[in-house]
Amino acid sequence: MSSTEQLAILPATKEPFQIVYADDVLLVVNKPARLLTVPGRHPQNQDCLIRRVQREFPFAEVVHRLDYDTSGLVILPMTKRVLSDISKQFQARMVHKHYIAVVAGKVAKTQGIIELPIASDNDNRPLYKVCQQDGKPSVTRYKLLSYDSTTDQSRVQLEPVTGRSHQLRVHMLALGNPMLGDTLYASSDVTGKSSRLMLHAEYIRFQHPLTKQPVEFSAAAPF
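^ Pseudouridine synthase, sequence as received from the core. Prediction below:
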């Protein structure tokens, strides 16, 4: 991690998280945009999702994260056993997620699969890039939901098969369709078309660690 990233101040939104599901062993919450999932390294980046949740649910823990700019569903286990179980499900790709995004331009195909390896961009940390030599295999399924010719913007559903950092942003950029409001990867004219990153984790499905039954949850995109 670069010193620039370590020292970056990321102001936490006042918007609260929403509880989508709760039982004795796990929570599913809807994280607002502009909120870290866990505390940042900078002293002013201590306000985050998990600390807010722990005020009400002291035993909640983090098993996966969403970026600061991304909103949507996050699973928070409340026992060590459930934390281990959900972690193993992520490793085995048993957790299925999809996101909603609004991107610049018209996506060329109505649906497809992006298979482009992603690596850290060492010259431009904390960014990532497509890199055939050093990149890790990265796969995203996408589906065009609608296109607005007036604004020249596409609404897409994205399913990350792999879970690389910034994968969805990098893959859509590689298609020529950067996300609106993306201050890291989009040009200033695209970034300025939205006051937030237009990326939301809308749906998640996994196996409940105790009942072993599939459970699924959704939270509509706020855009």
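The chain has five helices and eleven strands.
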